[in-house]
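Onboarding guide, step 5: your first structure request.
Type a short instruction followed by the sequence, for example:

Predict the 3D structure of this protein.
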Amino acid sequence: MKIIIVVLLILVVISLFSGLVFMYRDKGQSKRTVIALTIRVALSLAIFGIVIVGHFLGWLPGAK
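The system replies with structure tokens like these:
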């Protein structure tokens, strides 16, 4: 469970920086920045959902 969360957090950071790179390269001419930031938001929501479900199902240590 911890590995999944860490991998998703790393993917969020990668998506965030790719959005920054696309923003500077494209100068607003393409939608790659919007797509990268949409992926970041979706991953963040997935992390939030996994943590909530993991808490209620007792998958996370200390969740009682």
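Each response can be followed by summary notes, for example: The chain has a mean pLDDT of 89.
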